[in-house]
Amino acid sequence: MSVTAVIGSQWGDEGKGKVVDYLAEQSDYVARFNGGNNAGHTVINEFGTFKIHLVPSGIFAKNTIGLIGGGVVIDPQVLIDEIEMLNKAGVGVDGRLFISPRSHLIMPYHKILDGLYEEAKGAGATGTTRRGIGPVFADKVSYNGIRWSDFTSDTFEKRLSVQVELKNKIIIALGGDEIKYSQVREQYREYYLKIKPYIKELFSLVQDGLKTNKNFLLEQAMGTFLDTDWGTYPFVTASTTIPSAASAGLGIPPKYINNVIGVTKAYTTRVGAGPLPTEITDTKSAVYEQFGEVAATTGRIRRVGWLDLEIVRTAVELSGTTELCLTKLDVLSGLDEIQVCVRYELSCDPVRYADLDSYGLEQIEPVYKTVAGWKEDISKAKSFDELPVNAKNYVRMIEEAAGIPVKWIGVGPERDATIRR
Ligand code: GDP
Ligand code: IMO
Ligand code: MG
After folding, report:
1. 222, 227, 279: which to mutate for ligand 2, most atoms within 8 A of CB?
2. Model confidence over 343-367: pLDDT tens digits?
3. CA 384 to CA 389: how far, in whole Å?
4. What is the distance in angstroms between the CA of the first residue and the CA of the last residue of the chain?
5. Interval between CA 15 and ligand 1 midpoint (Å)
6. What is the CATH number of the domain that holds 71?
């Protein structure tokens, strides 16, 4: 039996979707345990190219069962569209995708409030995905949430009517448009009928799996530094993103998680506001262009920066990461020199990430080491030995800083563009 958590070591978008798709073949279960459809995980394989928001990225492996745990928040329309899209592509999710009745629903008022709060905060806005994530998790922990389990009785109607009344007061005060109870009720009852065949309490299934030596692959959403507690608060997301979240979000006791794969991009990206110590701010520079990415969920341009080893080291320590998967090494090809942040200094003294808040992180000086780049295209490389010496040195430098091995190296976005060491 193995329980492997795949955790992004930076600010999200490290390439978790690709890695989970690559590893899923050996897994009996692949599961999402946190976040919601703020996630956008890219998968490119024999079925096509997909941007997945809710269904686990390992669903393409035909003998693997997909689970969406109670820790996930769901926009029903997004889930329905995704299931339809996967079925159309020949992936066939029916009968092997199960959703916890404990998972909370993103309601229309959550999305409206997300937008209104962002507008109200002005320059201090978080830069959320505006998918209603903050407001739905706020309702969850303040006992105002609505779950799939509420639909089996008239609990849904009772809870919804209270919430619509309450939320309308806030929406109107903030200058938004009132929500109509009957419209929401009808729409969500329709959603429930479509999602009902997939809803199943996961407790026994997970417990039986653990007892019968099944393999679980746990797919984190967001990255370590978007974690509510350990991220760059308040520029974070509203869920716990470290492996322990799988315990509450899926019902897997922490002692069973025996592998933690840290997915680490060969440089750094971030979407939305908040500190990014190694940020490349010259948007006209060639390297900015080279690292450029478009966000999978919102289509925004991702901010980019050099690799930050203080961030990677902290992520490894925090999550008990056992091995790294380095993604996008191919993107560095062609650079004469590469900058890497090896540590932070504050007023000339060494300082650790964990000793700083977001304000402090804006004050630090990243200490860079310049390493030699390589010119060769590495996108067809199949083994570590085939990589140019400076690319090998780059990988070894990361291993040394992190204190754990780099077991996989991504050299392209497709599933097969992966070197296993
Ligand atoms: P996730 O949210 O962690 O799953 O990552 P995203 O899918 O949002 O962003 C990662 C981007 O990098 C996507 O466009 C992937 O197709 C792409 N990608 C992943 N691994 C590699 C790699 O090794 N090389 C290249 N060139 N692209 C990659
Ligand atoms: P994946 O799983 C990158 C960021 C948003 C914003 C902050 C809060 O694809 O790596 P939210 O909508 O969650 O309230 O926004 O978190 N964010 C992500 N950034 N990748 C993600 O997911 C993200 N999910 C949320 O940009 O800064
Ligand atoms: Mg993403």
Report:
1. 222
2. 999 999 999 999 999 999 999 999 9
3. 10
4. 22
5. 4
6. 3.40.440.10
